[in-house]
Every structure is written in structure tokens, then in C-alpha cells.
Design brief:
heterodimer, A: 327 residues, mainly alpha, B: 277 residues, 12 helices, 0% strand
Chain lengths: 327, 277
């Protein structure tokens, strides 16, 4: 087990450096260097000031030294200052938004599991039934559904037509301060229903299909036949013998689906006006605020990497075959 | 190839997706003849008209015919997704076959590179790259292609890895065939079925990404119509013009669904090991 952990940790380190190198290369992708988009469109910036900026950001040094300095910076969570008018440190901007994005994604992950596992198991047990067919259809629609369209349709139905739910923001702006804690929670819930639905829908499709197929395969295995031959009741066979085996690889699948889930944040946060990292990413792309864009890209991929790592460890802990095989 | 087509037509879902895609291709190819109006023509007297006989899908904020714009948009979507998938398959096949055939250090480096690329949420990566470039149709084709090849690469690598020790490859090598000849002539044709499947699924995904980018304002730029950027107006006029958001989104859904189902059906048909259910 220790050897397995060490090996996984080593790949984690290598992947981490890979992420930093790719992020760093994208910064230098801009023709004329990372400053050019900032300075070229800005008439106020004279060639002298440009020189000063280049010195200030250390852009006159060789690339490997720039990379090293950038690495030293991010180790201290120093991503430079935003190009926007407020010129705040990038990390401060991200810090206040990160919890919101993580909170919503964690919640939607829980919802995805809550819906897809029971539905998937039931579909597999009743393979070929009407129920199974309906969930299959829903799965494919979930795959193909453009999430931004789903968001707009939800806004149209529940926000505009029925006026049941607010369509923008995390909480009300008027009268929010005077609310009691309970009212505040209710206010948050109402604001979160639509975004959470959008964030969850696509994920349920993928995971449900996975659970169904995995369960379906396991139910055909010899040890299930054996359990049946022993005369065990169906319930015990399904929930005790089959489910455990079917759900094991799910840990890895969840780890792999993290990037997609987090990527969805850009879309639903932008549409529903939720002040998370996804919205910040979109805003800074529109404003060409490069320090913020790069820090966002780097931090989000770092989080994904950690999520994958934890999923791998979790899988190895749950399944002895994996950790023994990798010795 | 003929056999595959025959199987597809016999398969109910396969037939549905094939017909949908065929309609789409016809619409895209003959857009100038099939669209009732000029998609760029602004008409201030016909702003935000609901669907009627004259304008089956209504008109937009500038009085342009939505049906005509959507027909032209199918062109853009197909173009973008075809080129993007072409690029991603090209990169994927190249890196995947190198990794699978050469093995060792090369395989290690390429596989690690794939793992690293997979850590970046696609949308974030695309946004970061596009921020440095002028948004144009060519840009998004290249960027989507360059960020979606990892699945194909893994698949080709696995396929070649499983084939390269077979007798027919050894014989080819004994006859003095070079590395590239073995890869392209002997190994890749065997990997074709799974590549075909992932191309079909990839086309759907590329259309989804393109429309999302256009909706976010960094993909296809107006006045060129795209299903995604028609939806921008749809969101702005949510309260008065439902047709501007309902129809383009539905078109995306059906198109992506068709490509996804085609991919799934192909997988069933082409994979003899998998039991058809």
C-alpha cells in the first residue's frame, strides 16, 4: 500500500508540474508576450512605460527564470495584480469566489449520486422494462442537452411565466439584511434551485448510465448466480453482493467527471449571475484580464488534479485488487 | 462500409439519427436555396414578430427571419465540428499510435501529457486560450480540436498496444516494413471502428462546445448566425420572445442527440464482442 501511495504521489507531482508548464506556456502564447494585449490597445501606455512594465514583470529575463519566478509567486499564492480598474491582487478576487463554486459543485455532486445510484440500480435490475427504457431516453437527452439552453428554459418557465423562483444571484438584494437566518436559508434555496438543477442534470445522465451498465454486468457474474443458487433473497443479492462491486469503479468515474462538472460552472454561474469562479473566468476573458484568467485556469486544474488523486486513493482503499496489482 | 450502412438502416435508432443528420447536411449544403429570406437582411418594420405563416419561427431584434438564420447556422455548426473533430482525430491518432507502437519512454511522456491535459476543464482551457486570440470561426475550430484529442489518443494507444505483438505485424516487420508503414497500413485499419465511434460522439460534443462558446460571446461572432449566438438575444428577450430561445436550443439538442445516438449505434454494430441489448 505504501509503495502504491508513493507511486501515485510521484505522478501527482509530475502532473502538477505539467499543469504549471502548460499554464505558463499559455501566458506566453500571445504574440509579443503576455503584456501586448494589455498595452497595445491602450493609447495611454507609452513605449517608455511599456519598458518599465516589462522590467517590473521581469519579462526581459530568459523564459526558464520567468517560469521559476512565476512558480515562486504561486507558491505564495501571489498571482500578480488584476488588469481591471480596481487592480486588486488576483488571489483576493478568487479567494472570495472559490467557496461559492466549490459549495455548489459539491452539492450537485451529492445530488447526482442521490439520483443516479437508485435509478441506475433499478434500471439494471429491471433491464428491458419500460422504466429502464425511460431512464435510457432521459440519459441520452441529458448527454445532448446544452446546459445554457436548459438554464434559459428554466428561467422562462419558473422565473418569467410562473414567477415562482428568482432568476439571478445567490440571494435577494433588497431586504436581505433584515431577514432572519431561516428566511435567509429559504432565500438561498430558492435562488439555488435552478442553477443546481442545471449543474446536476448532465451529471445524472452520465453517472446513471454508468451505474446501470456496471450493475447489469455484475448481475450476470458467476458469483451472483451462485448466490441465487444458494437461495439468497433477491434483496440481499442486489444490495449486498452486486451493488458493492458495481459501485467500486464509480469512485474513479466521479474523479474523471470532475473537470466537466467544474467546467459547467462557467455556464450556469454566468447565466444565473452567481458570483463564483466560473463567472469571474468569463468576465476576465471578456475584459482580457490575463492575470485573473491564468490564476483561474491554474487553480481549477489543480483542484481537479487533487480530486482525481483522492478518487484514486479512495478506489485503492476500497478495492484490494488495485493496490496489490500495483506493487 | 456498405455493410455498416445496411446495419445502421436496419437499426431503428440508427436510422433516426442518420435521417436527422442527413436533413441537417442538406440544409447546410443548400442553405441559400432553402432559407426563405436573407439571414442578414435587417427589417425595422418586422421586429420580434412571433411565429406566423410568413415567418415560421418568428423574427429577431433586428427583424431578421429566425428560420433563415437557423438554416445558415447549421452550416457553421457542421463546419466547425467537422474541422474540429478532424483536428482532434489527427492529433489523437498521431500521438496515440506513437505511444502504443513505440512504447517505453515515448509512451510514458505521451501518456503523462494526456493525463495533464485531462486535468484542465475543457471550457476553462478553451476560454484561456481564446482570450489571447481574436475570436473567429477558424480560432474556435482549432481550439476545440486541440483540446479534445485525448480520448482518441488513449483509445488508439490501447488498440495498437493490443495488436502490435500479433503475428501479422511480426510478419510485416520480417518483410522489412517501416514503422510508419506498419502503423498506417497494418495497425490503424484495425483501430478504425472505435475511431469512427468516437468521431461521431465527438461531432456532437464539438457542436455543444461551439454553441456554448457562441452563447458566451466568444465563439461565432454576430452578424454571422450560430445557434449559440441566436440564444444570446433569446436570453435578453426572455419575457417577450420565447421563440428566440426555444427553437435554436432545440436544434442543438436534436443535432447533438443524433450524433450521439449514431455513435452509440455504431458501437453496437461494430463491436462484435459486445452483446447487443
Amino acid at each position: 500500500m505504501i509503495i502504491f501511495l508513493l507511486r501515485r504521489f510521484l505522478t501527482l507531482i509530475i502532473t502538477f508540474f505539467g499543469i504549471t508548464i502548460i499554464s505558463f506556456s499559455i501566458i506566453h502564447l500571445a504574440p509579443g508576450g503576455p503584456l501586448s494585449p494589455f498595452t497595445e490597445f491602450n493609447p495611454k501606455i507609452t513605449p517608455e512605460y511599456r519598458e518599465k512594465l516589462i522590467k517590473m514583470y521581469g519579462l526581459d529575463k530568459p523564459l526558464y527564470i520567468q517560469y521559476w519566478n512565476w512558480l515562486k509567486g504561486i507558491a505564495k499564492l501571489d498571482f500578480g495584480k488584476s488588469f481591471s480598474l480596481d487592480q486588486r491582487p488576483v488571489w483576493d478576487k478568487i479567494k472570495e469566489r472559490l467557496p461559492i463554486t466549490i459549495f455548489i459543485n459539491a452539492l450537485s455532486l451529492i445530488l447526482i449520486l442521490l439520483f443516479s445510484i437508485p435509478l441506475g440500480v433499478y434500471s439494471a435490475v429491471r433491464a428491458g422494462s419500460v422504466f429502464d427504457r425511460i431512464t435510457t431516453v432521459i440519459t441520452f437527452i441529458g448527454y445532448a442537452m446544452p446546459s445554457f439552453w436548459l438554464a434559459i428554459i428554466l428561467m422562462m418557465i419558473f422565473g418569467v411565466k410562473l414567477q415562482w423562483l428568482p432568476i439571478s444571484g445567490l440571494h435577494s438584494t433588497i431586504g436581505y439584511e433584515e431577514m432572519t437566518t431561516l428566511q435567509k436559508i429559504w432565500d438561498w434555496t430558492k435562488h439555488l434551485i435552478c442553477p443546481l438543477f442545471v449543474a446536476t442534470f448532465g451529471g445524472v445522465a452520465g453517472v446513471l448510465r454508468y451505474v446501470r451498465n456496471s450493475m447489469y454486468e455484475v448481475l450476470k457474474a458467476d458469483f451472483i448466480l451462485f448466490a441465487k443458487a444458494k437461495g439468497l433473497p433477491d434483496k440481499v443479492i442486489i444490495y449486498k453482493h452486486a451493488l458493492r462491486n458495481a459501485l467500486l469503479p464509480l469512485i474513479t468515474i466521479l474523479g474523471l467527471s470532475l473537470p466537466g462538472l467544474v467546467g459547467g460552472s462557467v455556464i450556469f454561474e454566468t447565466i444565473f449571475g452567481i458570483p463564483g469562479v466560473g463567472q469571474l473566468m468569463w468576465q476576465s476573458v471578456m475584459a482580457r484580464d490575463y492575470p485573473v484568467i491564468m490564476a483561474n485556469l491554474f487553480l481549477i486544474s489543480l483542484l481537479t488534479l487533487l480530486g482525481n488523486f483522492l478518487a484514486d486513493i479512495g478506489y485503492a482503499l476500497a478495492d484490494p485488487r488495485i493496490r496489490l496489482e500495483n506493487k | 462500409m456498405k455493410e455498416i450502412l445496411k446495419d445502421l438502416i436496419r437499426h431503428k435508432i440508427g436510422l433516426f439519427s442518420l435521417i436527422t443528420i442527413l436533413i441537417l447536411v442538406v440544409l447546410a449544403l443548400f442553405a441559400p436555396y432553402l432559407s426563405p429570406y436573407d439571414p442578414f437582411e435587417i427589417n425595422v418594420n418586422e421586429i420580434l414578430l412571433p411565429p406566423s405563416f410568413k415567418h415560421p419561427l418568428g423574427t429577431d431584434l433586428l427583424g431578421r427571419d429566425v428560420l433563415s438564420r437557423m438554416i445558415y447556422a447549421s452550416r457553421i455548426s457542421l463546419e466547425v465540428s467537422l474541422v474540429a473533430v478532424g483536428i482532434s482525430i489527427g492529433i489523437g491518432v498521431f500521438l496515440g499510435s506513437l505511444a502504443g507502437y513505440l512504447g517505453g519512454m515515448v509512451d510514458q511522456i505521451i501518456s503523462r501529457f494526456i493525463d495533464i491535459m485531462l486535468c484542465f476543464p475543457t471550457i476553462f482551457l478553451i476560454l484561456a486560450v481564446i482570450a489571447y486570440l481574436e475570436p473567429s470561426i477558424l480560432t474556435i475550430m482549432i481550439v476545440i480540436g486541440a483540446t479534445s484529442w485525448m480520448g482518441v489518443a488513449r483509445l488508439v494507444r490501447a488498440e495498437i498496444l493490443s495488436l502490435k505483438e500479433r503475428d501479422f505485424v511480426l510478419i510485416a516487420r520480417v518483410y522489412g516494413a517501416g514503422t510508419f508503414r506498419i502503423i498506417f497500413k497494418h495497425l490503424l485499419p484495425n483501430a478504425l471502428p472505435p475511431i469512427l465511434v468516437s468521431a461521431s460522439l465527438g461531432l456532437g460534443q464539438a457542436i455543444l462546445i461551439e454553441s456554448a462558446l457562441s452563447f458566451l460571446g466568444i465563439g461565432v461572432q454576430p452578424p454571422i448566425p450560430s445557434w449559440g449566438n441566436i440564444l444570446i438575444e433569446g436570453k435578453e428577450t426572455l419575457e417577450v420572445a420565447w421563440w428566440l430561445s426555444v427553437f435554436p436550443g432545440f436544434a442543438i439538442l436534436i443535432t447533438v442527440l443524433a450524433f450521439t445516438l449514431l455513435g452509440e449505434t455504431l458501437q453496437e454494430i461494430l463491436n462484435p464482442r459486445k452483446e447487443i441489448k
